[in-house]
Each structure stands twice: as structure tokens, then as C-alpha cells.
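We both want to read C-alpha cells more fluently, so let's practise on a single case. Once you have written the record down, we can walk along the chain together.
***
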Amino acid sequence: QVQLVESGGGLVQAGGSLRLSCAVSGRTVIYYTMGWFRQAPGKQRELVAAITSGGSTNYADSVKGRFTISRDNAKNTVYLQMNSLKPEDTADYYCASKNGGSSYRGPYDYWGQGTQVTVSS
């Protein structure tokens, strides 16, 4: 059974940083594409960042240069380092994994429960 558990969300002032973690069980992260999504109230869910099995990364234009996705193979955990946070980054953030590791494009098959990020101005 694949489980993804996010942590690290919270309230931060604009310009601050947060690091989200996604602890994965039931599959080895290095073999699969892992992604971070977010959904703000009234908006569609969007892919923020993804990392393929080969280590290639992809970012939404809105977070390029500010967010970094990474993984720790020993801990089987994926991270999203978020710097220079803006109020528009406020959303629920979800970790997801897809079957297959060569592309960041969906669909994604397993999802975490989400963690809330609030950026105050």
C-alpha cells in the first residue's frame, strides 16, 4: 500500500521560507516521478514542481527560481523548499506520485492528504 504523508506547512510572512516534506511508504521514490501540487481556494489544482526518476525537474513558471524540489533516497522522502514566499503562494499543498518515472506529466496515481501553507503580507 502506497502512502504519502506531507508535513511542514504553516503560516509565514511574505519573503519567508518553508520546507515541505513528503514521507513515502510502499514505493521507492527514486523509481517514480514525484510531484508537488497546490490548490488555492476557488482555483484549480496546479503542478508546482516535479522530479522524475532520472532526476529531471520541472517547475511552474510562477515558482521558478524560488522553489526547489529534491529527494532523499535514504529517507524515501521528497522535499519542496520554498523561498521568497508570496501571498499568492497560499494554498493547500499536496505530494503525489505517478506510476512511471520518465515524465512529469500526469495523471498521478497516489496522493497525500495535503498540508496548508499561508503566506501573510
Observations:
- The chain has a mean pLDDT of 96.
- The first strand starts at residue 3 and ends at 7.
